[in-house]
Write the structure tokens for this entry.
Amino acid sequence: MEAENVIDIQNLRHRYKTHQALGGVTFSVQRQSIHGFVGPNGAGKTTTLKILATLLRPQMGSVGVFGHDIFADRKAVRRRIGFMPDHFSMYRQMTVFEYLDFFGAAYGIGLQERDKIIGDVLALTDMAGRKDDLINGLSRGMQQRVSLARVLVHDPDLLLLDEPASGLDPRARIELMEILGELRRLGKTIFISSHILSELATLCDHVTILDRGEVKYTGTMRGLITTGDDLTINYQLTLRAEHPATGEALSKLPGVSRVTPPLPNEPRYTVTFDRAQISPNVILRTVLDAGGEVVSFAEDVKHLNQAFMDLTEPGVRI
Amino acid sequence: MNPALLALFIRSLREDARGQATYWARAGLGCFLLLVMAIFALPARGISAPGLVFFSVVIGFQIAAISLMGLSYFSSAIAEEKEEQTLGLLRMTGLSPLSILLGKSTSRLCGALLMLAAQFPFTIIAVTLGGISLGQVVAAYCAVGAFIFLLCNLALLGSVLARGTAGAAVFCLIVIGLVLGVVPLLNGLEWLAVNGFNRHLSLDRVANAIWSVTPIARLTEVLETGYHGGAVGWQVMVNVAFGVGCFLLAWAVFQRFCEREIEGPGTATRAVASVMVNSMGVRLRGLRVPRPWRDALAWKDFYFLWGGRMGFIIRTLLYGGVLACDGWAVATKGTAFATYGFGVQSIPLMPMAFSIDLSVMAARVFRTELRDQTFSTLAMLPCDIRDIVHRKVWGCFLAAAPGAFCSLGIQILFLAFMRDSTAAGTNMSIHTIWGIQVVTGWLGKVFVIVLIAWLSLYMKRGALPAGWFLSFVASTLVSIIGMLILTATSFAFLRGSPVLIVYGLPAITAGVGLLVSWILYLQGIQRLQSLAGEE
């Protein structure tokens, strides 16, 4: 049985001539998850991805992928990963089919199997109708799809995607995210670096935040954006109109530690309660019983942008 | 000077000053000069007029260096702005086309002339060594200077007309090739007119007039013993006049040819043109590209880099055609040609054409992957970089097979048809000497292509001329060392002891060449590995 962690990085360090790119990075990526990898420019994201893609040899630390050492078992690792770099790495004088066929053959896939796989990946990326088009004539979004199709040709278990949505228009970005969602459903593990935080927040279940070569956060997305702590949880309650009785009823509930009163003309409460003692359902029922007209009731979460800003330092690395 | 023009000029000088290539070129030239000087400072028995020989070697070397390296250096003047899409930004600053042309070309011209001027004091030593006068040295430098001026402005014109540096360099090569090629063509036509139709067209005079404006003709004249002419000859005036003409033409067509670049790469015209070019490329590769072979990398390079089946057919026709011409000559001319043997006409031509073909392949085989940032995806394949290199080289070999087969074939046929005899003053068979030359020639090709491929991993442009240039330096040094050995052994060759010259020297040369090639190959693998991580 294979390890639960697809990627296991321990104390990874890498230095370029002029600066330390990675200063002891440690994190892991779980199987069949979509793991976001975010950080400011120069944080070390691309260096980490290149090391994971076996293109760069780490200077210190250990990097395991599917339990294999990244450099000792380089060939075994390469068969199971697909890397999409942050630039278009394509043979533009080929047609879409020729391009995918070439990579299929280069990975040693037989002719018949190749035909089937190429058909599948073209269908998945919605490029079946353009398979005979020259890559050079395709739009950026289309080229990005072809690039993703190329990554999928040898059916890797782990996809390493470096800024796959950069430069794409909103429609192309949304469509790309839908494809990634579909890939997760197909059992792939996706490790994605991106600057578009709003999309990562909805797509990823895990996230690692890197700043100046150091991990600032690694864990679940929920753990990052939730506003509570280990014991308590915050919920936002919005009513149609101000209703003082609701606030009083909530304050008296056992397990509720705090109810933030509404602002004038804004009947919104923040309820903080102990998740072990009381459930959100009880709170909602109490509000309804008290006669409050509920517009919305949801967990209070931070925007990923805010979490990112809180964790990373301002300015550029010198 | 216009402040904007001055800013552009300073920027160009700064870029040159920051670029490593400039320093490597200067260091290389300096080392070569010192080496040649050291060699000629040794007691050179048997060499009359050592100063003249020394200066001839240095000036010949400079002409070769300028012609080869200057092509890529000068051709990038405007083309690099086009490639980096910064020409539009320059125009937005209010710089006129004249200012851009002056700013971009003058710095390069200054750099090249300064490099030449820096060597001048060293070459004055030739006067001390004897056999050459100061007037001859000055006249030779004037000839080279005028040629640099012409080349710079011709390349500037090419740079304006072409889309990129490679196109501009090709334009210059074609123009120079046409000028040099028209001389034998006119002489041939005159010979045909006189011998075939008994008419004098005076085309040989035109050919002589054209030849007289080349730096080779001028240097031949200047470096003759007892030259007492002026420093500035006809060649200097014509070269400078043509240089000015090229500059004016570049200025005249600048707006027309650079407008599309200023519009940016995303314009519809460019997109359509690019698709058309690529569609033509697809057609040129052959009627239909087959499915990838088991060796997919070789397949990719064969079909998408070297022209595929169509390229193979064209190469076969061209090389095979030359071979067929030789066969026809032997068949029709009979015994007269049998004296020399089959291949006498194509022996000088075919290996040279094949060397050019191979050199172009060596310069492109990795550079295109690095330029298009596709090498990292190849490096991700489940194989070593070494395997990738071997497979790519195999793709080149397949494409180059017609040239290799015909070149080797013609050399073997030449040996087979050539009447064997003993070389003058020795007991060595002509066949043996020729056979050794063929083998060393092929080993030399291996060295040159490995060197060019290795240089292409470090140089964005100009690996081919730089490789040729370095090979030229290496072969010159080997010749000089050989000459010294020859004199040091008191002409052992002529005394009937040819082992050293016929076997020893080629063996040492080939051994050193192969050793250096092996080192470059190993280092190149490491370089590719690191480049894959840098993309």
Observations:
- Chain A touches chain B through 36 residues (CB under 8 Å).
- The two ends of chain A are 45 Å apart (CA to CA).
- The longest strand of chain A covers residues 5-15.
